[in-house]
Design a protein that fits this description.
The structure holds two protein chains of two kinds. Chain A is mainly alpha-helical. Chain A is 73% helix and 3% strand. In chain A, strand 1 and strand 2 form a beta hairpin. Chain B is mainly α. The chains are: A mainly alpha, B mainly alpha.
């Protein structure tokens, strides 16, 4: 693994631009807020796209755009940021989704008050998310991981729906407490490094080379697991999610589901597997079964919801189960499936939450009974809904197809029984999407009982259309994405010592 | 030590090392004289404020005249070192930050007690001497000086019943703790024929072990009462609630800092004979303090009391890492003590501004929608609350991370999990405050007033809360050297 400093500074710049934009927003009049926020997040997104230019596609396991400034030298803590193929994917995903969330909010009638604070929170979230996905120092990662909580609790609590205070409170408490275990784990790791090498260290590429005995690895694996299992979330640690996602404003749910959940699964891949490979090999079957339990339980819970937003939220949980199950197959196809599914879920969950938000704007209800059949009166919107639904269901050509297919393939590498179990759980996730589509298209009262709605148009149409196009890009050309992150996940597989192709 | 020897060996030249302390003492004296000479008026109030600020600034300046980084002066009764200097600078700065609030607070309450200015100076003098001595007598006298000033300041508003009750409790329990300290000091002196803690601790042998340990335990017990370690904490919430809020902030920040310094100085001298008993007793006390302090804070509805209990819990965090008895642990403890004084003071000072409003009675529901009333104060308060909770990039996070590191390096994992549990409990009440402030509708509508000095002082504390957290090396490099140095000297003996 090499550190390539070419183009370094770009990541820091892309982290500073949202902060600068926030400062502008705070000091300028409220009528400039929306355009400034829009432009600021657009520039951030464009910079993150521009960083692709510095990547060498034949050596994507190296760390590009590398920057390193010591924070506390004695403790080996430094501001070390950079991207490898895997980080790059999430780096661009987070700036992109943040941009879309801000673009969507511009026309969201739900956001009437405290505009300055609202956009500031989203811009700050962008900065922190970039930090999470590009940090190579565990302490730095933890700092950004925690920091994402602060703006999100305000987004949920101030601009959310009825139960927003309760949800914000619950969201914060769950994630903050669980992440303390992570902090303790990182510190134990750092102390272990001191005992072995004489230096405190929190730098990931160095910590990878520590020789930890199996029991120590399992102990640390479990500490990290608590934090990331709550964040991902895995059943039974998922109860904060339906509340937080259900009560947040649309753009908040989009950012929460599309990127914040990926922090958990990304960290599982990077840290739990990368740092404690022996423990991962020891516990892989347990993790796979927790994943499958999550899929099945969340799928059933999804079907039982009568609030469409909670419905989408539970479907996210189910998807995350797939991601974790695929990841802990610990083979190449499993990792591929997992990462691709993370990206795919980033787009599809964003789109689904936007659908829910759009319907609420028109009908002022999330209740499945009230909104049943409503999309029939909005032809363009209904096409987008259908495409999103089928894509998230995992039909060939849709975004989730490759994720599910490759999960089955990777399970087959272990045993046929496991593959059959995965197939059955994949079937559940198709069922709830069918429920979703049936509810919106086929149920409900006959014509004339609804007012005539304005169809989706303008900026919202652009946003949703771009998401749908990207979903089908994943479905039809998955190799565009594989090419970026394959080298990095092979690198992690090297660490695990399970390279099979 | 013979008193004649002490007097005979006193070198006038050595007084230059005491310049900051002398400046503070002269300041107290000048204020005292002014109080007698001047008639009560608006001018007098302002003169007192500015003269106090002037003397504190002079005292800060006088640090630049010293040229020793480690020196025992006055026959070893007084030690000039970096830890002492750091803590003295902090204590002076914290006092400076408190003064403007005291001024407006008393103005608002229409009862202006001029004596508080020189009492606060005398307590500061006590803190400064407490921070720089290994000598039992000096520690005892300084402890008395700080405590008596605190009793008086707690009872400042003598008309109010709560004030009297709190001060009375504080006086009784504080008096007992002083007696215990004296008793412990006597044991230690009897065991080792020395008054210097360094000599006492290194005189450990099998013959005097019992007396030494009894003495040490009694002496530590006194400090435990002073700091408010559970189960010796009962005076603390009452006294903190009773005192005028700026004074509460002063006691919780500078006072706590000063009371912790002798404990920190003791750590390198806990040798392998004493280690296991030290580890067990300190860690159990720390665990109890963290859990009970936070659990009691969780059920409070009075904000000032809540912060008082949170202050107890923070003593527990600091104590927990002292149990690891390593150089790393000492660094973490020193860092946490310093930064707690910043964030704890900030929280109390915001409260003191709010208290000046008629409609405000420190009840938790009243804070609902504070953001609509005052953006600046509520954001500052949120920053301090997040710092106390330990959210990065504030100082509280760095402090907690260092505590975890200190525990991890000595494999005291169970205390780490207790710390997690305690922080989990604390999340409940800290987040409730933030949620109420920003996400509720306005409970009571009022406009708190703060003048420019108060604004500067709170802004500075917010600034420090962030900067010492984001760029911890500012404080860390100094602290790291201090700790290594203390351990090096301890091992030389």
């Amino acid at each position: 693994m090499e550190y390539i400093t070419n183009g370094s500074g770009l990541i820091s710049i892309s982290m500073l631009i949202p902060i600068a934009t926030t400062i502008l927003i705070v000091f300028l009049s409220e009528k400039f807020t929306k355009p400034i926020a829009f432009v600021g997040s657009l520039i951030t997104f464009l910079i993150s796209l521009y960083t692709i230019k510095f990547l060498n596609f034949s050596h994507l396991s190296d760390i590009y755009l590398y920057e390193n400034y010591p924070i506390i030298k004695e403790l080996g803590i430094s501001y070390a940021v950079g991207v490898d193929g895997l980080s790059e994917v999430f780096y661009i995903l987070s700036t992109f989704i943040s941009f879309l969330a801000i673009a969507w909010s511009v026309k969201d009638i739900q956001i009437k008050s405290r505009l300055k604070e609202y956009y500031s929170m989203f811009l700050l979230t962008t900065t922190f998310l970039i930090g999470v996905f590009t940090a190579w120092d565990l302490i730095l990662f933890y700092i950004f991981y925690e920091l994402t909580l602060v703006p999100m609790i305000f987004v949920i609590g101030v601009w959310g729906y009825k139960l927003r205070l309760y949800s914000a409170y619950k969201f914060f408490i769950y994630i903050f407490i669980s992440s303390l275990f992570l902090l303790f784990g990182i510190m134990i790791l750092s102390a272990d490094s001191f005992k072995q090498t004489g230096h405190f260290n929190a730098f990931y590429p160095t910590l990878v080379h520590l020789h930890l005995p199996l029991n120590e690895q399992i102990f640390l694996f479990l500490l990290f697991f608590i934090a990331f299992a709550v964040k991902t979330p895995l059943v039974p640690f998922h109860t904060w999610l339906p509340d937080a996602h259900g009560e947040a404003p649309t753009a908040g749910s989009v950012v929460l589901a599309a990127i914040l959940l990926k922090m958990g699964s990304y960290a599982f891949l990077r840290f739990n597997i990368g740092l404690f490979p022996e423990a991962a090999k020891h516990l892989w079957l347990v993790m796979v079964f927790i994943g499958i339990l999550t899929i099945i339980y969340a799928s059933w819970m999804t079907i039982a919801q009568n609030n469409i937003k909670r419905f989408v939220a539970y479907s996210s949980v189910s998807h995350m189960g797939f991601i974790v199950a695929a990841m802990f197959m610990l083979n190449f196809q499993g990792f591929r499936a997992s990462v691709l599914e993370m990206v795919a879920h980033g787009f599809s969950s964003a789109s689904l939450f936007m659908i829910a938000g759009f319907i609420y704007n028109r009908l002022h209800s999330f209740n499945t009974k009230t909104i049943a059949g409503s999309v029939r009166y909005m032809p363009i919107f209904s096409i987008l809904v259908a495409l999103t639904g089928f894509s998230a269901m995992g039909l060939p050509g849709g975004s989730s197809f490759w994720g599910k297919f490759l999960t089955i393939v990777s399970a087959k590498e272990h045993s046929l029984d496991l593959a059959l179990i995965v197939i059955v759980s994949a079937f559940f996730s198709a069922i709830y999407m069918l429920y979703f589509l049936r509810n919106l298209f086929l149920e409900g009262k006959t014509e004339g009982s609804f007012l005539i709605f304005t169809d989706i148009r303008g900026i919202k149409l652009t946003v949703m259309l771009s998401l749908v196009v990207l979903m089908f890009t994943i479905g039809l050309f998955p190799f565009l994405f594989f090419n970026i992150f394959d080298a990095s996940i092979l690198n992690i597989l090297h660490i695990v010592g399970m390279v099979k192709r | 030590m013979d008193i004649r020897l002490l007097l005979g060996s006193t070198n006038l030249y050595e007084f230059k090392y005491l310049l900051p302390e002398i400046t503070v003492f002269v300041g107290a004296f000048v204020l005292f004289l002014l109080d007698i000479v001047m008639k009560n008026s608006e001018t007098k109030k302002r003169v007192f404020l500015w003269i106090s600020i002037l003397f504190l600034a002079l005292s800060m300046l006088s640090f630049s005249f010293k040229n020793a980084f480690f020196k025992d002066v006055f026959s070893g009764t007084y030690t000039i070192d970096t830890l002492g200097m750091f803590s003295k600078i902090f204590e002076i700065v914290l006092t400076l930050l408190v003064l403007p609030f005291l001024h407006t607070y008393m103005n608002k309450k229409n009862t202006f007690y001029y004596e508080i200015y020189y009492i606060i100076f005398l307590s500061l003098l006590g803190m400064m001497t407490l921070s720089s001595s290994y000598n039992l007598i000096v520690i005892y006298v300084s402890l008395e000086m700080v405590s008596i000033s605190f009793y008086i300041m707690t009872a400042l508003f003598r008309g109010s019943f709560i004030s009297k009750e709190g001060a009375y409790k504080y006086l009784i329990i504080g008096g007992i703790s002083i007696i215990i300290a004296l008793y412990g000091a006597a044991f230690m002196y009897a065991a080792s024929k020395s008054l210097d803690i360094r000599a006492i601790m290194s005189s450990y042998n099998d013959a005097n072990a019992v007396y030494l340990i009894v003495g040490m335990i009694l002496f530590l017990l006194a400090f435990a009462i002073k700091i408010g370690i559970i189960p010796f904490h009962f005076w603390l919430p009452d006294a903190y609630t009773a005192a005028p809020t700026p004074i509460t902030g002063f006691m919780a920040s500078a006072g706590k800092l000063a009371f912790f310094i002798p404990l920190l100085r003791l750590v390198p001298y806990v040798n392998q004979h004493l280690y296991s008993s030290w580890m067990i007793s300190v860690s159990i006390l720390a665990a109890a303090t963290m859990i009970v302090g936070n659990a009691l804070a969780l059920v409070q509805s009075d904000l000032k009391r809540l912060l008082a209990y949170s202050s107890i819990a923070h003593s527990g965090y600091i104590l927990s890492v002292l149990s690891s008895n390593s150089s790393m642990g000492l660094k973490a403890a020193i860092y946490f003590v310093f930064v707690y004084s910043v964030m704890g003071l900030g929280a109390f000072l915001v409260l003191s501004v709010l208290e000046q409003a008629e409609e405000w009675d420190n009840q938790l529901p009243k804070i609902g929608g504070l953001y609509r009333n005052t953006g600046f104060l509520s954001i500052s308060f949120a920053v301090f609350i997040f710092a106390l909770l330990g959210i990065p990039p504030t100082v509280g996070f760095v402090g907690k991370a260092l505590v975890f590191l200190g525990l991890a390096i000595k494999n005291i994992y169970w205390l780490g999990f207790v710390l997690i549990l305690a922080t989990a409990i604390s999340t409940g009440y800290y987040v409730r405050i933030v949620v109420l402030m920003f996400m509720k509708d306005v409970e009571v509508r009022f406009k708190p007033h703060y003048d420019i000095l108060e604004n500067v002082s709170i802004s500075l504390l917010v600034f420090l809360t962030f900067v010492l957290g984001m760029f911890p090396f500012v404080l860390w490099n100094g602290i790291s050297n201090i700790s290594e140095f203390l351990f090096k000297i301890a091992n030389l003996r």
